[in-house]
Amino acid sequence: SQQGEEDPQALSIQEGENATMNCSYKTSINNLQWYRQNSGRGLVHLILIRSNEREKHSGRLRVTLDTSKKSSSLLITASRAADTASYFCATETQANDYKLSFGAGTTVTVRA
Amino acid sequence: KAGVTQTPRYLIKTRGQQVTLSCSPISGHRSVSWYQQTPGQGLQFLFEYFSETQRNKGNFPGRFSGRQFSNSRSEMNVSTLELGDSALYLCASSWGGASETQYFGPGTRLLVL
Rounded to the nearest 10 degrees, how much is the dihedral formed by the CA atoms of A73, B91, B74, A48? Predict the structure, then answer.
């Protein structure tokens, strides 16, 4: 079973709107990472947030982490057509087992 | 700095054959991880190598194996291919492992007929 699960599975928004997706996980983590994947290509790293951090920003991206609820959210502000992609959260558990466990992803479509 | 490269990009094999995929990490990166991506199972961890040592292996049958060379390049091998092995195989490199940003290659798309 997967450690992380994203919600919603799919999201369709108008250009300029904000997009929010959530990730829940099961076991305690060292860090949580968000990745983007365009149309079956390789994954692109967006943000890494460690377990002792609550919020991080990168450009139009804002990630929050609530370890008490075992959840994280990714907010994309002022979306653009180029943001159309699948977004995955990935966690490294405190087992330090040298692997990332990925969620099923959220597919975001930005309409022009 | 050159990114992670994977070869070949596309591959068609028949059941029972074997296949070897190659991954060249970013220069200086010593950790290489492999993932299998399918529509049904999503992204599944295969294995991770650091300085030629396998530190973890995912829940895959023994037909899936890998290795890492002294220059950090890595290969994975799948023997006795099954239809269900059709997938996008992604490798990722980093300095030290999953605690850090992973840099992914474009993937090798394998189709087993």
Answer: -20
Amino acid A18: pLDDT: 98
In the 8-state DSSP scheme, what is residue B2? -
pLDDT at residue A95 is higher than 90: no
Least Cα separation, residue A19 to chain B (angstroms): 22
Sign of the dihedral defined by the CA atoms of residues A25, A28, A29, A32, in that order:
positive
Nearest to B76 by CA among B63, B66, B90, B87: B66
Q: Which residues, 6+ apart, have CB-to-CB distance to B21 below 8 Å?
A: B6, B7, B8, B11, B75, B76, B77, B78, B89, B91, B108, B110
Query: Between the CA of residue B42 and those of A84, A101, B15, B87, what are the distances in Å?
Result: 19, 10, 22, 10
Q: Which residue of B has its CA nearest to A106?
A: B42
For every residue of A65-112, DSSP letters joined together read EETTTTEEEEEE-S--GGG-EEEEEEEEETT--S--EE---EEEEEE-
Search chain A and give the residue with CA nearest B55: A98
Tell whether the model's pLDDT for residue A2 goes beyond 60: no
Instruction: Please check whether residue B6 is in contact with residue B91, taking contact to mean a CB–CB distance below 8 angstroms.
Output: yes
Among the partner-chain residues B43, B105, B107, the one whose CB lies closest to the CB of A102 is B43
- The pLDDT of residue A1: 46
Residue in A43, A100, A105 nearest the CB of B98: A100
CB A99, CB A90: distance < 8 Å: no
